[in-house]
Specification:
alpha+beta; 2 helices; 2 strands
Length: 87
């Protein structure tokens, strides 16, 4: 999912609006925490797509005959993909 900057802007505006009327000694700290929370919630909505590549160098099944083919040849180039969220 793409990051939606409008959501971050709304949360930041709300943080500053709340800070504008907060006259307590901790108002600055409350604002900082609200900004941090807004940025955190914005960033963790990102979807991360990855492609990982590597070289398989063998192992237990490196010489096992696969159905319809010959032995697994090593080293072999391998690729995997993944989709995840930041946390």
């Amino acid at each position: 999912m793409a990051l939606i900057s409008q959501n971050l802007a709304i949360q930041l505006q709300a943080a500053f609006a709340a800070a504008a009327v907060d006259l307590s000694p901790t108002a600055e700290k409350t604002l900082a925490n609200a900004i941090a929370a807004a940025i955190h919630s914005y960033i963790i909505t990102a979807q991360v797509d990855t492609v990982d590549t590597g070289i398989a160098v063998g192992g237990v099944n490196s010489s096992t005959v696969v159905s319809g083919g010959g032995p697994i040849i090593t080293p072999a180039n391998v690729t995997g993909t993944g989709v995840g969220k930041l946390s």
